[in-house]
Specification:
The structure holds 3 protein chains of 3 kinds.
Chain A (H helix, E strand, L loop, with lengths): L16 H4 L9 E4 L8 E6 L8 E7 L9 E7 L18 H4 L9 E3 L7 E2 L2 H19 E4 L5 E12 L5 H14 L1 E6 L4
Parallel strand pairs in A: 8-9
Antiparallel strand pairs in A: 2-3, 3-4, 5-6, 7-8
Chain B lengths: L12 E5 L3 H4 L1 H14 L2 E6 L11 E4 L5 H14 L5 H7 L21 E2 L4 E2 L43 H10 L3 H8 L3 H12 L11 E5 L1 H4 L4 H14 L10 E3 L6 H6 L6 E2 L3 E2 L8 H8 L18 H13 L23 H9 L5 E5 L3 H4 L3 H9 L3 E6 L16 H6 L3 E6 L8 E4 L4 E5 L12 H19 L5 H5 L12 H9 L1 E2 L3 E2 L6 E2 L17 E2 L9 E2 L2 E2 L20 E2 L27 E4 L4 E4 L84 E6 L13 H6 L4 E5 H7 L6 E5 L4 E9 L5 E3 L2 E3 L1 E5 L7 H4 L26 E9 L1
Parallel strand pairs in B: 1-2, 1-6, 2-3, 6-7, 10-11, 11-12, 24-30, 25-27
Antiparallel strand pairs in B: 4-5, 8-9, 13-14, 14-21, 15-18, 16-17, 19-20, 22-23, 24-31, 26-27, 26-31, 28-29
Chain C lengths: L3 E8 L17 E6 L8 H10 L25 E8 L5 E8 L8 H5 L6 E4 L4 E3 L9 H5 L6 E3 L4 E3 L5 H5 L5 H5 L5 E5 H18 L6 E3 L9 E5 L19 H7 L1 H5 L3 H16 L16
Parallel strand pairs in C: 2-11
Antiparallel strand pairs in C: 1-5, 2-9, 3-4, 5-6, 7-8, 10-11
The chains are: A alpha+beta, B alpha/beta, C alpha+beta.
Chain lengths: ~190, ~850, ~300
């Protein structure tokens, strides 16, 4: 916002005061203030993705969820109902709007081929197909059905999963199901480090 | 946390150590401030640096990084010497009176009994209780057994005087941790240490049991080669003072991320299944063998009672297998137990990188996990990725891991030689997904979707589902190694390519898969209905539950984890109707211990639960973490997850790899020999890694300065270097350096400096400060410096060429805690020079 | 809908009385900053920038956690850090949120020659009306706290509005809401004074800060932002909080007797020159003992 912060302020901002400046009108003088930017925005209750306090946040989006609107985030503020943070946020939580709306976000799948020095775009279907083949190949090559003592172990030692700190419980559960069914033992997350 | 963030407001004294909550958990820290404002509570901060937490403390002590056990052991010594202990609590609620087997030896020379030097492990058979009755009764001859087990009947002495009682051993163990020894090891002057010890133990002055003290910590404790034992020392101290289970008390792991609590609960680490069930190993040839090994048997004084809640392990395990394999898990096939991988060794974080470096791990999925930046030893991790066949990264920003192949220092020629195929998949951010996360108060909180993912980015769960279904399709079409678990995994989602997180939450909550009736209450649950709690779980295949401790979070009454009730009638900050807390919506763990032996609260001002004689039930403001109808006369222990029923001051048998009591050991890289036993300076069971990348520095090579790593309040890990606001607040990497050291090296604030460890180097600006002072350790002058971790080679500033694009974790060593396998990020050796 | 107005109590550069002043009842609002519970997290800075929509500004590390030397036209509140050694040698990290003090007798408003460019609302908030601002910078001279800042692209002055837009709609200021520890508190001046005095008393009686007290300087008629300090006798240690702030004599003269003879061009000129001198003359002296970071 390079110009005046009073972009929304109409001419004659001093409202009722304008006529009274040079007279002796007893009508009180008023200043008209900037419109509240979140006044009609849609509120979505969410949880801050950063530390383990898990503060409640309210994400304000333009649009009332009507069919023809893609919601646009205009502001994020603490949820005053949340018993722990009671509306407060730290400097990271308070800037979540710029995490959601960020020009650095990844927008499409990409691949870096062996020996290459650049990213190439790849269609989702092709990426999933290729990854599926990699998983099967590596699993079949590294799967151990029995150990040296002929005990059933059914392990895949060639594949590792490392999971993130913000993954939901549901996502962790889904990953655990998928990876353990493949026999993956190298299943770790941020929880370890 | 045993307690929760809001509960901190109920405390009288806080010890904050190994954590920096003002900077890393600011919104939770408000409740520490609240305790000061409303109760005149006192705050002690012990840290290698004067942090922003220290700025609000009443007493700050600068400790050498990695000397925490010496400090806490010193406080235990002080509490015992000055009778600042909770006698009734100690005798009845802990194993202080249990008698330990003959032959157990304390580590005066640095080693407990049973050390096998060649294998670097302990034979723990002497780390056990003696079998028998109360003192004076004849000792029952123990039956020789190949696998040492806890005795069902434990010999005990409630006067705590028996020389082999846990209490006497504890007293002896920490008699060496005198204020003088504490000063030699920690660098904290004796008078300051005594001030802190006096203040912390003041809650038990003159036998008072009303007051409560709490301990808060984070990875400043965890990330050592003796991290688990530091935390244990804190737990022992809290048991000694009777502070566990009580409002305003407990041992509180603040944890560093929004859902690593949930990830751990959900078995997101190699060594546990969801709900802290142990993973099977190859010796578990069938389910019975597994359950025999992992289901603990009661071990207690004959006259006492023990709930031993883990005796329900078979119900949890079978219900889990039913959740995974549904109709394919039948009694006849041992509930598909053979589908599950059997884990024969350590597969933890550092092992992944080590084995990828060695060539056996060929493919990796990294979803929201920047393994290169997280380290330890980022350059080793980069070298490992170069040898992998494929890497799939799911991220919302370009990160160091996905771009390891063009990390600084890699030439175009070398790039051509890197054969790794890397997929980088655009994922959804937190606001674009629903689902639940579990905070460190153990609250499961549901969040809602605010907007769709941008561009072509996809929901993480859709990506994983689509990859899995593709793999399944390939196995169906082509066959391959042991396809059964892949083909039979339950996938009951309405839209299999897009599983709804609500469906997953309902699945791990669990449901009845036959009509169930409670024989006591005649209450029934119909086939297909959601279970109201884990007490309904069965081991006969009639229930399915993905995570027993989360059972109750999504019931027939709806999503309990989405509740928004803001009432708090007791004023203790319990908020019973906000979200849902595991286990069973209890907010303070072990809360039975908030009452005396007869079931009356220690403090009537802070009443959590109590025994209602008329109703013959435990009732209260919180949900009792106890068997609801156990009359105090039965003397059931409040620590229902231990087979003893009591808190463990002595950790018997295999509870810990490195000793039943904590002992101070030096970090793997230390400027001094251990003053307690110079011949056994380090933790004896810790093994160094051995690839060419694994180097460890010594003072002899000029690595004289202690370095520790940490976060700043302005940034979050390696994520916010993409956020302009965070970058504006802390624009550049820096190293915090004591004024005295800076003067010696001719470094001024803002100068570029180079920090070098045995692994690699790191370049940043000097932050010359009074907040880290030189220390005297065992008579030797020692400097500490601090390196915040937030930068890398992809970020706003990095991309603009405004910093050196080095990662802090290039410095850190690959070496881990023997119990939790967490790397030693805190307290390693470096050199410092002007760059 | 969401348009709101606030009644005006004082107007800058205005001939004659403020119309209708005092006709409506309004409580004076106040921000309490308890420096003893500030953790320097900068959530207040971020909340302010987010609410007001200001963009990224390039900053440079300057041997401190402090983001920039002082507030800017588009950076209205700033935590000032100081590694301060007490007489007994113990270290304190003093952190104070610096922003417009919303003085009861605002020096900026007194100094401002532009009709209606600076107003004080009935609730005590002092606000700049950029549409009327002529960018002369005299407000800087009138301000003992170095707050008003010039935007060179729009040639207007800016400062903290105490989120008058939010307050007018019944919301607390953005910084107040965000503050994690409750070091910031918002309410009526009476309530905040009471809270501050109670806290200062607690600090004296239970935490050993014998000189703890409340900063609410009378030289500017009291302020709409009050501080609790561990050491009220040494406000300078808190990033240069003036011990006895007052409106410069030349501004008082301008608004006092000179107001009525201000038409005399020569005197007006002299005052103008004096204002100009004060505006651009050296104003700040750094204490040698304290640094915002460590060694510069």
């Amino acid at each position: 916002m390079d110009g005046s912060r009073r972009d929304f302020l109409k001419a004659g901002a001093l409202g009722g005061a304008a006529t009274s400046f040079f007279g002796f009108d007893l009508a009180p003088a008023y200043a008209q203030l900037r419109e509240l930017k979140i006044a009609r925005a849609t509120e979505t209750r969410s949880t801050c993705p950063y530390c383990s306090v898990s503060c409640g946040v309210i994400i304000y989006t333009i649009g009332d969820n009507a069919k023809n609107v893609t919601p646009q985030v205009v502001h994020v503020e603490g949820d005053p109902d949340h018993p722990i943070n009671r509306g407060t946020l730290c400097p990271k939580g308070a800037s979540l709007e710029q995490d959601i709306v960020n020009p650095r976000r990844l927008l499409k799948p990409q691949v870096r081929r062996p020996g290459s020095d650049h990213w190439e775009d790849i269609a989702w279907d092709q990426a999933i197909d290729e990854i599926g083949h990699w998983v099967k190949k590596t699993r079949d090559e590294t799967f151990i059905e029995r150990d040296a003592l002929r005990r059933t172990v059914n392990r895949c030692e060639g594949i590792a999963w490392i999971g993130g700190c913000t993954d939901t419980n549901e996502f962790n559960y889904l990953v655990g199901k998928a990876m353990r069914s493949l026999g993956v033992c190298y299943l770790e997350t941020q929880a370890r480090v | 946390m045993t307690n929760g963030y809001i509960d901190i407001k109920n405390t009288d004294v806080m010890l904050i150590m190994g954590g920096n909550p003002a900077e890393n958990h600011p919104c939770g820290f408000k409740w520490a401030i609240e305790a000061k404002r409303t109760r005149n509570a006192k705050m002690i901060v012990v840290d290698p640096r004067f942090t922003r937490t220290a700025a609000t403390s009443d007493l700050f002590l600068q400790i050498r990084a990695g000397a925490d056990i010496a400090f806490l052991g010193g406080v235990i010594h002080y509490a015992i010497e000055n009778n600042r202990i909770a006698n009734e609590y100690l005798t009845n609620f802990t194993n202080a009176g249990f008698i330990v087997k003959e032959g157990f030896k304390l580590p005066e020379d640095g080693l407990y009994s049973g050390f096998d030097r060649a294998a670097q492990t302990y034979d723990k058979s002497t780390w056990n209780y003696e079998e028998g009755d109360g003192i004076g009764a004849a000792t029952v001859a123990a039956v020789a057994s190949a696998k040492p087990m806890l005795p069902p009947k434990v010999a005990y002495d409630l006067t705590l005087q028996h020389p082999r009682s846990v209490f006497q051993l504890l007293k002896k163990q920490y008699s060496r941790y005198t204020p003088e020894m504490v000063e030699r090891i920690t660098g904290i002057p004796k008078d300051q240490f005594l001030k802190a010890a006096d203040l912390f133990t003041s809650v038990r002055k003159d036998g008072d049991m009303k007051k409560v003290a709490t301990i808060m910590y984070a990875v400043g404790w965890t990330q050592h080669t003796f991290g688990t034992q530091i935390i244990r020392t804190a737990a022992m101290l809290q048991l000694l003072l009777g502070n566990v289970g009580r409002a305003g008390g407990g041992v509180n792991a603040l944890r560093g991320h929004s859902n690593i609590q949930g990830a751990t609960d959900m078995g997101g680490v190699f060594d546990i299944w969801p709900g802290y069930l142990k993973v099977p190993n190859p010796a578990d040839v069938d389910l019975k063998a597994y359950l025999d090994r992992t289901t603990p048997k009661v071990s207690k004084p004959a006259a006492w009672d023990s709930f031993n809640y883990w005796s329900n392990t078979p119900k949890f395990a079978v219900s889990f297998l039913k959740a995974l394999y549904g109709d394919a898990a039948r009694k006849e096939n041992d509930w598909a137990f053979h589908y599950m991988p059997k884990v024969d060794r350590n597969y933890s974080w550092t092992e992944i990188w080590d084995n990828m470096y060695r060539g056996s791990v060929k493919g990796m999925f990294a979803f929201g996990m920047n393994g290169v930046a997280i380290g330890p030893d980022s350059q080793k991790n980069i070298a490992a990725l170069k040898r992998a066949d494929w890497l799939v990264v799911g991220e919302i920003y370009p990160d160091e891991t996905s771009e390891f192949w063009k990390s600084p220092g890699i030439s175009p020629a070398e790039m051509k030689e890197i054969k790794t195929t890397v997929y980088r998949l655009a994922c959804a951010g937190f606001a674009e997904k629903d689902g639940s996360m579990t905070n460190s108060s153990r609250w499961l909180q549901w969040k809602n979707i605010a907007l769709p993912p941008p561009g072509q980015a996809r929901l993480d769960q859709d990506i994983v589902a689509q990859i899995f279904l593709k793999v399944r399709e390939l196995y169906k079409a082509e066959g391959g190694k042991f396809p059964d678990p892949i083909l039979n995994l339950t996938w009951p989602y309405t839209d299999p390519q897009h599983p709804a997180l609500a469906e997953l939450a309902k699945e791990f909550n669990g449901k009845a898969i036959a009509n169930l009736t409670d024989p006591k209450t005649q209450q029934t649950i119909k086939d297909g209905q959601q279970l109201p709690g884990f007490s309904w779980l069965k081991d006969d295949g009639t229930t399915s539950c993905g995570n027993w401790i989360y059972c109750g979070c999504w019931t027939e009454a709806g999503p309990q984890l989405a509740r928004r009730g803001t009432e708090d009638p007791s004023g203790l900050g319990i908020y019973q109707n906000w979200a849902w807390s595991w286990p069973a919506n209890r907010r303070v763990l072990y809360n039975r211990a908030s009452c005396d032996s007869s079931g009356k609260p220690w403090d009537v001002e802070r009443k959590q639960v109590w025994w209602n004689e008329a109703a013959q039930l435990w009732v209260g403001n919180d949900i009792p973490d106890f068997k609801a109808d156990s009359n105090p006369k039965e003397h059931m222990g409040p620590f229902i997850m231990n087979p003893e029923g009591v808190g463990r001051i002595f950790g018997p048998l295999a509870a810990f790899a490195d000793g039943p009591f904590p002992e101070h050991y030096e970090p793997i890289e230390s400027p001094v020999q251990n003053p307690l036993h110079p011949s056994q300076s380090n933790n004896p069971v810790v093994k160094k890694f051995s690839t060419p990348a694994d180097k460890y520095g010594t003072t002899g090579e000029g690595f004289n300065i202690i370095c520790t790593t940490y976060r700043l309040t302005e940034h979050y890990h390696y994520w916010t270097k993409n956020n302009p606001m965070s970058v504006q607040l802390i624009p550049e990497p820096f190293v915090e350096i004591p004024i005295e050291l800076a003067a010696e090296l001719g470094i001024k604030g803002g100068d570029k400096v180079k920090v070098t460890s045995a692994r690699s180097y790191y370049i940043a600006k000097a932050f010359v400060t009074k907040r880290i002072k030189p220390m005297t350790i065992d008579g030797k002058k020692v400097y500490q410096i601090g390196v915040p971790i937030h930068q890398g080679y992809r970020g706003i500033q990095e991309d603009a060429g405004r910093d050196a694009r080095t990662i802090a974790n290039r410095l850190t060593p690959t070496v881990v805690d023997p119990n939790a396998f967490t790397p030693e990020f805190k307290g390693f050796l470096v050199k410092l020079e002007k760059a | 809908m969401s348009q709101a107005t606030l009644q005006i109590r004082r107007i800058s550069g205005h001939a004659g009385p403020v119309p209708g002043a005092g006709v409506e009842r309004a409580q004076t609002v106040c921000k309490l900053v308890d420096t003893t519970t500030c953790i320097g997290c900068k959530a207040c800075e971020v909340a302010c920038l987010e609410w007001n929509g200001y963009t990224f500004s390039e900053t440079v590390f300057d041997n401190s956690y402090q983001t920039m030397p002082e507030t800017a036209w588009n950076y209205w509140n700033l935590i000032k850090f100081n590694e301060h050694e007490r007489e007994d040698g113990t270290l304190m990290l003093l952190m104070r949120k610096d922003q417009c003090m919303h003085c009861a007798e605002p020096g900026c408003l007194a100094a401002c020659p532009a009709d209606g460019a600076i107003v004080q609302y009935a609730n005590g908030i002092v606000d700049f009306q950029q549409d009327h601002c002529i960018g002369c910078g005299y407000c800087v001279t009138g301000c003992p706290f170095n707050i008003p800042k010039f935007n060179p692209s729009t040639k207007k002055m800016f400062k903290c509005t105490l989120c008058a837009d939010r307050v007018a709609q019944g919301l607390e200021p953005a910084c107040i809401k965000a503050c994690p520890t409750g070091c910031l508190h918002f309410g009526t001046k009476d309530d905040m004074t009471d809270l501050a005095e109670t806290r200062a008393q607690q600090l004296r009686e239970h935490y050993g800060f014998e000189k703890a007290g409340v900063y609410d300087p009378t030289g500017v008629g009291g302020t709409g932002v009050i501080y609790v300090l561990h050491d009220a006798a040494n406000p300078e240690a808190y990033g240069g909080l003036p011990k006895n702030p007052h409106i410069p004599w030349v501004v008082r003269l301008w608004k006092g007797p000179a107001k009525w003879i201000g038409n005399l061009a020569m005197l007006g000129g002299i005052i103008g020159v004096a204002l100009h001198y004060l505006r651009f003359g050296p104003k700040r002296v750094e204490s040698a003992k304290d640094q915002k970071g460590g060694q510069p």
